[in-house]
Amino acid sequence: MKKINNTCSTLYTPKVMATFKNPHNYGKIKNASGIGKVGNIVCGDVMWLYIKVAKNKKGQDVIKDIKFETFGCVAAISTSSIITDLVKGKTINEALKVTKDNVIESLGGLPKIKYHCSVLAVDALIEAVYDYFLKTGQKIPADLEKKHKIIKKSKDIIEERYKGWDK
Known about the structure:
By secondary structure, the chain is an alpha+beta fold. 51% of the residues lie in helices and 17% in strands.
């Protein structure tokens, strides 16, 4: 086990290891305003992101609370944790501006082979916000609709490509 820890420590920044060992906002929100579920059948990572949305004094939708459940590697858990830190308390519009690069930067970097974990974290947020708009009957902004369709199309392509892999 010690050898694995040494290997992880050389692959990942101290911030990645810290958020992996002590993730922020881990758990589930009952009666969430929106839920985003994304995964990658190739690497095996699966993320659920739960948001609770409330109105601020200006009447804007704000992510009042956010939690995650992730089954995956060190990078998947760390990126899930850091996205919650980056968007908690922000308006929906501000939150949707967070990119994979913001996630990677906040962690002090990731190995390139793990960049897809930062994409999954951002995609989970997009899907949670999309779900929130659907549940509340709000008009879905064109940009959000476009991002959702890209996520769905990618998922469908991967699932079709690997259909029957477990048989």
